[in-house]
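Following up on my earlier thread - several people asked me to post the actual chain instead of describing it. Fair enough. Here it is, all 190 residues.
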Amino acid sequence: MSGHRSIEETEQAVRAKLGDLPLRREQMAAVAGLYRAAAAVRQHVENSVLRAAELTWTSFVVLWVVWIRGEPETRQVAEEAGISKGTLTGVARTLQGRGLLERKEHPADGRLALLALTPEGERLMARIVPEFNAEEVFVTAALSDDEAEDLADLLRRVVLQVETRGAERRLELLDGQDPPPRRSGRRPRH
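Reply from S.P.:
Thanks for posting it. Predicted structure:
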């Protein structure tokens, strides 16, 4: 692939660039590896299984959360999928338009909405989850079952650290202030 650096080349470039900076390199390598592995797996699965089903990674995750949870509230789906409520709105509309998802009014609180798979959405998930899992097996083929289990446990520990201590750490870094609003990265128009 043109312009693509191997992981070894990238690690060598990082070592050359960082030189003598006082950094915890093992932790940097762990987080960089986590990010790179996640991106590689996501790209592989999107370009194999999900593309054939005309799904993005995010739309699959939304379907997965709804499939597993039954009829969750939209805010729960957004939180579990790791996306904003605004992003969920767009993804849900697309999936509704394809006849895979339906939005329902909450029975106890009309201000809230629930999401549910349609019968077509249920059929799609029953078909695609085994295909998705086959690719999970493929991308972890270099690991033994015990190593895959160890990796899953280590990643759970990383997630648990962020879930249990992340808010406290962010407050510490921001001197107790709320974080500034997110920016899209676009420059303001003048």
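The mean pLDDT is 90. That should answer part of your original question.
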